[in-house]
Metallo-dependent hydrolase
Amino acid sequence: MIVIGNFVHCPSLGSLEILKNYLLVTDDSGLITHFEDSRSEASLRLRGNVGPEDDILEIDDGSFFLPTFCDLHLHAPQFLYQGNGLHLPLMKWLNEYAFKAEEKMDADPVLARRVYTRLVSRLIQAGTGSVLLFGTIREETNLILAEVLQSAGIRGFVGKLSMDISSRPSYIEASTEASLGNAKSFVEKVQKSVSHLEPHRRLVEPVLTPRFVPTCTNELLNGLGELAQEKSLMIQSHLAEAHDQVKWVREERGEEDFEIFRKNSLLTTRTVQAHCTFLDVPSLSQLHVCGTSIAHCPLSNAYFSTEPFRLREALDQGVKVGLGTDIAGGYSIDIMNAMRQAVIVSRMRDGQRKDRDRPGSRSLAIDWKEFLYLATMGGAVALGLHPKSGMFQVGAPFDAQLIKLIDSGSKSGVGVLDFMDLNDARDIAEDMVEKWWCIGDDRNRISMWIQGIKIGVVSDQN
């Protein structure tokens, strides 16, 4: 595949590169083999050797390629009822909404397939190319989710919930031993389901998923830690999320959930913990030492946590951070909205600083370019994707979304940018990217590629 046009990416936190009129080439495995100015000697030589069989895409001036987004925290079955019950505190909301919905999905595979198919279609529409998902406790339901993701062509990290204690007696695994056996079985079946594919086409991966400390005994957590180490598996859970959850763990277990996870070997370089709003700076520093990543979910934090996440402090400590939508604790599946909400939260935190007028004091505000990094490169690093993922460079998989600001045919802006015209597209500059970041929507997203393959909406006719 040969692609010619403008490319935008964030190679480091706070940096934005706009590479105009570049030529990109991918090989049969979807990896980038050439990426240079289209007028370079090597690029001109490649263009001169183009044959009729070559797949060539040349985009208009008013468009650009951007790496796909990564969503580090999403509850797949909760897509069923997103936007409901957000007036409740976390633990009560789980009992009245989350557990019921997940139990309903486990009881109806037809419903599960329909909901998951719609979910994946919405993710593609939103530009999400890699997603870390919580599922349900039933193995078969999670295998449906894995199948839908693989068929759709996006990167999916699927977690079958591990729960050997629960406030809802009907939604629980039979025992600690059964829970561990179920987790191991799920891992093996997901890995087997893609084993016939070439390695670069295996887009789905199993993830060990202790829901959180209140639904897992110490014995289960210890067993999952051993399984993760034995099979080099990813781990995901919730950490220090909400006041009532933190209080419950202290009263029932007599210690912080951070310590419980750590002593059971569940804070690893392949762990992603959601929220972490109640972690102080020393704890964030310890999390960095463990190599554990954080899924920052600003919208759901606003509903269920009494504190905002200390994002600037986490970044200063070197913690790997990406963004999550947290469906359905958050009601929007769009990472664009997560980025915008996160900027607002960080600016409010900065406005409340007591030392803001002191010379040399550290700002807590995070700007849009930093969040664009977290949504792309930062998320790729947190998920442990290909080492070169998250930006356009030789050796990286071509995971890209095509963003159109101006339509060359109508000579006017696309979507909410319809007040712009072709004259604004002569030069894709930072202010145009910022404008799209602030007010653009899915009408500006024309196409998406994962590992060099163009993907689209999926069907649930199965």
In short: The chain has two domains: 2-67+391-455, 69-366. The first helix runs from residue 41 to 48. The mean pLDDT is 94.
